[in-house]
Amino acid sequence: MYFTVSGGASDEMGYAMSRLELDSDFCDAGKNIHGSDNTERPNKQLNHLDHEISQLTMLRSGPRRCLSQVIPGKWDSSVSTVKMLAGREGNYSGRGRFSSADCCHMLSRYLPINGPWLVDQMRSRAYVSQFSADGSLFVAGFQGSHIRIYNVDKGWKVQKNILAKSLRWTVTDTSLSPDQHHLCVVALRNLEILDLVVGNLLLALAPLTEGCNINKTQPVPHRIIEVYASMSPIVHIVNIGSAATESLANVTEIHDGLDFSADDDEGYSFGIFSVKFSTDGRELVAGSSDDSIYVYDLEANKLSLRILAHTSDVNTVCFADESGHLIYSGSDDSLCKVWDRRCFISKGKPAGVLMGHLEGVTFIDSRGDGRHLISNGKDQSIKLWDIRKMSSNATCTPGFRNYEWDYRWMDYPTQARELKHPCDQSLSTYKGHSVLRTLIRCYFSPSYSTGQKYIYSGSSDSCIYIYDLLTGARVARLEYHKSVVRDCNWHPNYPILVSSSWDGDIVKWEFPGNGEPPLIKGRVRRRYL
């Protein structure tokens, strides 16, 4: 089904308990300090997603039924904070405290839409933004080979300033592991920033960096490192746990590397667009410009698997869950594919294919349950998928495109906006944002604080969009930046969202705010590329 953006009145957000509404249609949100509308609430109830994920989301973020009951046999999906607190004091649950779902229901009402407040400003484009698993660190990647790591707990102080080597264009992507002991970065020499990953490299990387032999019987002590790559199959490693704040490649610190090229490449050079660590930190999965997926075994310090996965660039890859058996990939061939490593060697093909996008896939985010994922597409839409609905192969195509279009410098054609894939297997489609100029990213909102009730995305129209997963309603549209917002990231525990833009600004959005005056939209800005 296709969800459309709905309009509606906005209520002013309350900052004190006395101002909280007892009954709300959707969530507590409204105008920011500048007075511009950030949130839309539907005038009428939209159709809810009729799928198992709807029930799972309600279990994670819905209020207790004894509190949500309006009259016998009728329940309200939204219960006010005052009523929730009264129910806890009255011990309606019988346990004298909130459940995790109750906490998510309350926290998910307060969206990070106030501000923004400036974190950093550079003279080059910002491409990547990523919180660590516990939210204590934040990583940003910029054009011009800069990577900065901020200590969130210490007032967003720059903990590490890294200048990568052999890069003529930009750092490309970031991704942080749950233990945040290691950082992996990817970049393009002549294109754009790709991927940055933090992982738990216990056995391989310390010996590799120091030139020692690997002893698999004795674990190597934790080292905080960073890995990055240029438009080549080499992924470089940086120690980010050292005392020095500045890390200049091969000047102040050694930036060593991992070779992702296979023996049969015969000197052919390719670029890595995306890289992610496995949950245990023992493997890296990467998507590349040679239409392939690579898996690198960090313990053995060698490439363990290469899959000729798509018929065009593999823009995004990720592990489906903690097991590491399933891998999701998205490509410019407009397909999302699921790969099961347990049976790939015998079958030599994907476990399944997900059809529905009309243009290339720019990013994939897994829900972490091994079943559901979302993808951002150049057809200007986000799609929600259940891999149990996938096909064994691409059984049909959207047909010949009767218009010329390149997303890097052209607007999406008007005649293409209402087209639909004849074999769309997605559960739902979310529209309103713009996916142009670069590989813009989308994510599920945090599980801990929202129960993954929302999805959010950057946009080429300089805004950040937040959608309700179940209704498809646009919950918020955050306006401040003056250029493309390629990436944004929601704090795992608190209502804080940080966006990175091509205008060079890294800014944070909060609820209700930190007491400091937010940035003024009309302020004098430095020139950006």
Distance from first to last alpha carbon: 39 Å
Give the number of DSSP strands: 34
Percent range of helical residues: under 10%
Give the low-confidence spans: 2-46, 190-194, 198-224, 522-529
What shape does the CA trace take?
Answer: globular
Q: Can you count the helices?
A: 7
Strand content: 25-35%
User: Mind summarizing the main beta sheet?
Assistant: 6 strands, mixed
Q: By helix and strand content, what is the structural category?
A: mainly beta
Radius of gyration: 23 Å
- Mean pLDDT metric: 77
Question: What distinguishing features does this structure have?
Answer:
6-stranded mixed sheet; disordered N terminus; mainly beta; 9% helix; 529 residues; disordered C terminus; 5-stranded mixed sheet
Summarize it.
The chain is mainly beta and 529 residues long.
Description of the structure:
The protein is mostly beta strands and 529 residues long. The protein is built from 7 helices and 34 strands. The strands form 8 sheets. Strands 9, 10, 11, 12, 13 and 15 form a 6-stranded mixed beta sheet that branches. It has a 5-stranded mixed beta sheet with strand order 1-27-26-25-24, with no helix packed on it. A 5-stranded mixed beta sheet has the order 5-6-7-8-14, with no helix packed on it. Helix 1 (52-61) packs across helix 4 (100-107). The longest helix has 10 residues, at 52-61. The relative contact order is 0.14. Mean pLDDT is 77; it is low at 2-46, 190-194, 198-224 and 522-529.
